[in-house]
Design a protein that fits this description.
The protein is of the alpha/beta class and 802 residues long. The strands form five sheets. An eight-stranded mixed beta sheet has the order 12-24-23-22-13-20-21-25, with helices on both faces. Strands 15-16-17-18-19-14-26 form a seven-stranded mixed beta sheet, sandwiched between helices. The protein is elongated. The longest helix has 35 residues. α3 packs across α4 and α24 runs antiparallel to α30. β18 and β19 form a beta hairpin. It is built from 30 helices and 26 strands. It is a multi-pass membrane protein. One of its GO terms (molecular function) is P-type divalent copper transporter activity.
Length: 802
């Protein structure tokens, strides 16, 4: 663009003005119809469309910073002012032809840059929509009750949730949403808090337990005393944390801005130097200026000729330094880079995450649903053959039928496992089903005979390590008569003891060996006899350990941060090779940990999938959400992994490196042609007869633009590193860690926090002195949630005989 403007300036000094429009098409002498239309269309865009850029450029210069906005304003202003100037000169001199103008350049540059920024803004603004959607999931009304003696309900009133005050008593029925944070004063039930905590397991609620607004009550009616209402609820605090993180997150200074910070002052300096040099040369040796001044007229004074010539050379240098292709350098690379990322299952929201990802020093992983699959699975079945004398197939048929009636995630996991192993979607008949929260279930099961007559050969092809002859034996206690009913009990130790079963030391030791690893162990009793033990766990994703090892090999520190308990977190960390763990943390704790690392000068990436992760995702330098996660987490993040593959975290860093490298090459292509033209434009080679010709300007402008676009398109050749290559690099180096090799911290630990974060943390801890939100998925053996708590630890699936 600058070289074309130079051509225009040089031609305008001639009487003919270098015009391109025939005289008969001129509206006025020197003013063509096309130039008039260009002027009328360009002027509103220059004034109103460029207003934002002028304001931003002014603010940057006010703070002594020359960023990309300053360069854009410089380029468009020169193009517009020069076009107006030469047009006015042509009209004053009544030229026969209208001069070449560049009124089309400012609108093109403004629209292209503004479009890229608008698309990025739209991607970020969706977070607010997701937060609004999250808030809309809260209960809109509540049943406020008045209590008499012994908690007798005197009256009930249905009110909108905004009218509930602290201290009010709220009644929540089965399946209802808790309208406020509060404390249970009567009743017992289970609550699904996965929307808030990210942990999939329901949490047992009894008198004294704390509940979270927005969570769902399961089967029991509860009376809850409101402790936090309105903006004080946990959900509202999470939303507040996300919004504060977004507004306080410092904008990343992109490479174009940094380049402009050096480039603009340099060009202004060269332009002024050219002005001073030609003024000096002109007054010392006027013949040099006279010889090279186009259209020299002796009627013009010597001083005026020198000044006009010096200013012409100076402004031409300034205009050359502002090429149109500079505005294409970053957007084209970002567009291609994000497109390549999408093809590989990685959604990247704009140029900032692309630029920042390759600078990451620390990656923080959430546990449930990120490192693990986020759903419980049966990992072991231990048959107590000496006690039960019952075939494994019979046990699975009865257990699967019983748990098929359960709505609990662990029960559904057991039922699914039994159906898969039995290769049947239709199980037996269950009656008199009873579920006791925190303990287990009991029922009567019949009509399972059809499951026992299927091919035993097919059943034992699952890779089991059982004593097949023992399991296939049939004894006196294995009736197969049609219509036989079986009494089935499934639950924890307490449930078995309540029903009169004695747990032997070897069985208790087998259960403890799983529980100490973070698994859930449950017992099965059929017709009054203990028959089996099942171990259930949230298993680790197949690629988690490889992803952690690859990040470590890249020099990136990997940390796990989770709301789950310390024992479970360490068990998962040992499997995947993570040496630093923060357990039992609140959403505000995650934000505080991110901020602490950032204060130490580290670049932090947060990888998560839940609502409780969204504040940390928004606060981190790069937030990475799992594609199967919640809407709020996905919208709060900068990068979304569509394929739910943690190796894509590595791929996004690699793609970032490639894209940033390509952007830098683009800037070289955008500037090199014009920088080479600066000494020619400054008149350095005029004494040698070398001046800029029109074809040089056209060629430079076209070459720079084409070079930038072609350079960006080369990004399409990027291929994501294959899993096989990662595995070959890691072969022989990946090992599970011992517990002593893992540094585990509970809650906030020893880190420092800002007062605002500490206040939110205190508010949330105050709501639950028993266990902070986010720890409900797993508890230690013997606590109220022992049986139905998800203890995350993965072992190879096997079937053993004790």
């Amino acid at each position: 663009m600058g070289l074309m403007i130079y051509m225009m300036v040089m031609d305008s000094q001639h009487k003919e003005h270098g015009g391109s429009m025939p005289e008969e098409q001129n509206v006025l002498p020197g003013l063509s119809l096309l130039n008039l239309a260009f002027f009328l269309l360009c002027t509103p865009v220059q004034i109103f469309g460029g207003r934002y850029f002028y304001i931003q450029a002014y603010r940057s210069l006010k703070h002594h910073i020359a960023n990309m906005d300053v360069l854009i304003v410089l380029a468009t202003s020169i193009a517009y002012i020069y076009s107006c100037t030469v047009l006015i000169v042509a009209m004053v001199e009544r030229a026969s032809q209208s001069p070449v103008t560049f009124f089309d350049t400012p609108p093109m540059l403004f629209v292209f840059i503004a479009l890229g920024r608008w698309l990025e803004h739209v991607a970020k603004s969706k977070t607010s929509e997701a937060l609004a959607k999250l808030m809309s999931l809260q209960a809109i009304d509540a049943t406020v009750v008045t209590l008499g003696p012994d908690h007798f309900i005197i009256s009930e009133e249905q009110v909108v949730v905004e009218l509930v005050q602290r201290g009010d008593i709220v009644k929540v029925g089965p399946g209802g949403k808790f309208p406020v944070d509060g404390k249970v004063i009567e009743g017992s039930s289970m609550a699904d808090e996965s929307l808030i905590t990210g942990e999939p397991m329901p949490v047992s609620k009894k008198v004294g337990s704390l509940v979270i607004a927005g969570s769902i009550n399961a089967h029991g009616a509860l009376l809850v005393e409101a402790t936090h209402v309105g903006a004080e609820t946990t959900l509202s605090q999470i939303v507040k944390l996300v919004e504060e993180a977004q507004t306080s997150k410092a904008p990343i200074q992109q490479f174009a801005d940094r380049l402009s910070g050096y480039f603009v002052p340099f060009i202004v300096f060269v332009s002024l130097l050219t002005l001073v040099a030609w003024l000096a040369v002109g007054f010392v040796d006027f013949d040099v200026v006279k010889k090279n001044f186009p259209g020299y007229n002796q009627n013009i004074s010597k001083a005026e000729v020198i000044v006009r010539f010096a200013f012409q050379a100076s402004i031409t240098v300034l205009s050359i330094a502002c090429p149109c292709s500079l505005g294409l350098a970053t957007p084209t690379a970002v567009m291609v880079g994000t497109g390549v990322g999408a093809q590989n299952g990685i959604l990247i929201k704009g140029g900032e995450p692309l630029e920042m990802a390759h600078k990451i020093n620390v990656v923080m992983f959430d546990k449930t649903g990120t490192i693990t699959n986020g759903a419980p699975q049966v990992t072991r079945v231990l048959v107590l053959w000496e006690m039960a004398r019952m075939p494994l197939r019979m046990i699975l048929a009865l257990v699967g039928t019983a748990e098929a009636s359960s709505e609990h995630p662990l029960g559904m996991a057991v039922a699914k496992y039994c159906k898969d192993e039995l290769d049947s979607d239709v199980l037996g008949y269950c009656r008199d089903f009873q579920a006791v929260p925190g303990c287990g279930i009991s029922c009567w099961v019949s009509n399972v005979e059809h499951l026992l007559h299927q091919s035993e050969e097919h059943f034992f092809l699952a890779g089991a390590t059982t004593d097949e002859s023992s399991l296939l034996a049939t004894g006196e206690q294995t009736p197969t008569a049609e219509g036989t009913s079986y009494s089935v009990l499934i639950g924890n130790r307490e449930w078995m003891r309540r029903n009169g079963h004695h747990i032997k030391a070897d069985v208790d030791a087998a259960m403890s060996s799983h529980e100490i690893k973070g698994q859930t162990a449950i017992l099965v009793a059929i017709n009054g006899v203990l028959c089996a033990m099942l171990a259930i766990a949230d298993t680790v994703k197949a690629e988690s350990a490889l992803a952690v090892h690859t990040l470590n090999s890249m020099g990136i520190e990997v940390v796990m941060i989770t709301g789950d308990n310390k024992r479970t977190a360490k068990a998962i960390a040992a499997q995947v090779g993570i040496r630093k763990v923060f357990a039992e943390v609140l959403p505000s704790h995650k934000v505080a940990k991110v901020q602490e690392l950032q204060e130490r000068g580290l670049r932090v990436a947060m990888v998560g999938d839940g609502v409780n992760d969204s504040p940390a995702l928004a606060c981190a330098d790069v937030g990475v959400a799992i594609g199967t996660g919640t809407d709020v987490a996905i919208e709060a993040a900068d990068i979304v992994l569509i394929r739910n593959d943690l190796l894509d975290v590595v791929a996004s860093i690699e793609l970032s490196k490639k894209t940033v490298h390509r952007i830098r090459i683009n800037f070289i292509f955008a500037l090199i042609y014009n920088l080479l033209g600066i000494p020619v434009a400054a008149g350095v080679f005029m004494p040698a007869g070398l001046v800029l010709q029109p074809w040089m300007g056209s060629a430079a402008m076209a070459a720079s633009s084409v070079s930038v676009v072609l350079s960006s398109l080369l990004l399409r050749m990027y291929q994501k590193t294959s899993v096989e290559l990662y595995e070959s690099r890691a072969r022989g180096q990946m090992r599970s860690l011992r517990s002593s090799q893992i540094s585990a911290y509970q809650g906030l630990g020893s880190q420092r926090h800002s007062p605002a974060v500490l206040k939110v943390a205190r508010d949330q801890v105050g709501q639950n002195p028993e266990a902070p939100p986010g720890t409900g998925s797993s508890v230690n053996p013997g606590q109220e949630q022992n049986h139905y708590s998800l203890q995350d630890y993965h072992v190879a699936s096997d079937l053993n005989v004790l």
